[in-house]
Amino acid sequence: MALSIRKFDVVIVGAGGSGLRAALELSSAGLKVAVLSKVFPTRSHTVAAQGGVGAALGNMGEDSWQWHMYDTIKGSDWLGDQDAIEFMCRTAPEVVIELEHFGMPFDRNDNGTIYQRPFGGHSANFGEKPVQRSCCAADRTGHAMLHALYQRNVYARTQFFVEWMALDLVRDAEGAVLGVTALEMETGQVVLFHAKATLFATGGGGRIFHSSTNAFINTGDGVGMAARAGIPLEDMEFWQFHPTGVAGAGVLITEGVRGEGGILLNKNGERFMERYAPTMKDLASRDVVSRAMATEIKEGRGAGEHADHILLKLDHLGPEVIDKRLPGIREIAIKFANVDPIKEPIPVVPTCHYQMGGIPTNYRGEVIVPEGGAVPGFYAAGECGCASIHGANRLGTNSLTDLLVMGRSAGMSVLEYLKGHGSHRPLPNDAGENALARLARLDGQQGGEDVNEVRGEIQRTMQAHCGVFRFPDMLAQGVEKIRALEGRMARTGIKDKSMVFNTARIEALELDNIYETARATMVCAQAREESRGAHDRADFPKRDDEKWLKHSLWYKAGDRLAYKAVNLKPLTVESIEPKARVY
Amino acid sequence: MPLDGRERERLRWRSRRGLLELDLVLQRFWSPPGPDLDEAQGRALARLLAMPDNDLLDLVMDRVPNADPALEQVLVRLKAA
Fold first, then answer.
1. Considering CB atoms only, which of A212, A215, A335 is closest to B17?
2. Architecture of domain B5-80
3. Which residue among A26, A138, A340, B69 is least crowded, i.e. fewest CB within 10 A of its CB?
4. pTM over 0.95
5. How far is the C-alpha of A234 from the C-alpha of A362, rounded, in Å?
6. Contact between chains at A215 and B61 (C-beta distance less than 8 A)
7. Do A143 and B6 touch (CB under 8 A)?
């Protein structure tokens, strides 16, 4: 297969919020910027964000970035790096105002300032009382953000390569990153994008779980490419889950359903929450409910043919209450669970929502590895990066704050880097061969493993063995099962070998990234013997700061693990020392 | 005229969306053996897929009425998927 080469100052992979924000910084400075995206930019998964952007503007009452910083550190269960968290919270108001000037139609107060919505976990005066901090555009915040940023990029002459899939990083003998190889879906042609700097903004990999709120495009592409290029992955054991997604589909059923009187039942029809939380029952906190659901399933009391879900019963509320108080729920249940909750319970299961870990960076978006510090020419931002702002759990609204702040910060760092690195580094002779070899192997595979089957096996393994509540025996088996899939992964095959818009080929290539992401998650989760934030272990129920106040680093080669210290020192203010995380 | 095979594949890829709900509906729409589509229906589907995700979801979930008769036939099939 011929490999043509195209030269740009910067190549950005991913055109969601962080990729677009970074591209704008660079194109506005007059650089030649290529942005590669599997789908049209405004159809990136950022479009699903409804909650808003957290920023201490103080439009609804007194607020400060220090309070936002405290809430973020507490949310992270002290695993977040405090320099990065200070940087994000301090910069957040600036990037929000900037976005307003880019044309983002934020909801407004009567006096013209941006309206801010209340959101769980955000407080005034270091946990004293709730504060309204979330800036939103009705329930279409992500959608409005993508449109505003995309239009500004068109104006700034960013060059978009839409329906292109990045395949692999290109590095030289010194480890510097020189760009990526990418496949154009329209033609099947592979092109090497040779760049002075490469920035990953590929989003999360939530599709590694069987039940996920993530769109199908979220296959951990950046994380997979980084792992294959020898870059370690940070804190991959930390994934945020929501207790009630529709089993088999992932669409969320709001917690308001339990607030209105919905109850959870196991396969015997038992209201099991009475055993786990005798007082609060189904209204216990999210982690208590998730843990109880996972325990019921693990102990064989799950419902359904595979005993793999829980039943959310609403019919006792009556059709009037359901239609009046929970209007969207009935349509979601009918459409995505194929049940009418007026008559039957909704099958639900704890569902993956957000990836806290990723490619290790500092708050400048520079990719940082133990072997030599910053990787020359390589940057990451948004959900695929790990600065680490979210630590062991992400505070609501901080995903959009992260992608704006880190997208811009990574863009600014690239500008700084290019001042001293004005020319392209020469490509090694074998540049791009790793990607071509992957494609040749796939196309040449006879009688290969079915991609859908292997993907399903990975997703079911992750869900059962490494879900919201983790058991030692299940984790140990899970590591074995994931490792055992390596052989099948090496033999995936496709029947359709055509070059033009070959969806089967794309899905096979995505599966490689799903596998790296899943394997890193499973291995890190088994190794971390404590419970912290979203990582909840049945055998180690407490946080252990003495042994585990550190970030995990997973290397693909040999499934090797290393660890690095959490940065407890903010940039300009006093450290917020670890204490119990109680809400 | 039935829709060209590669055009079908293009539309199938463009059925990958930013919103999970649409991914699920479109996955069912394309589930084997896949929908029968002629060229006109292919054009209608292409126009639906070119819409912003939230607007398309509103149509598919019947939250807003469809104002374009040319889209109706394919939209009905999407809703039934």
1. A215
2. Orthogonal Bundle (1.10)
3. B69
4. yes
5. 12
6. no
7. no
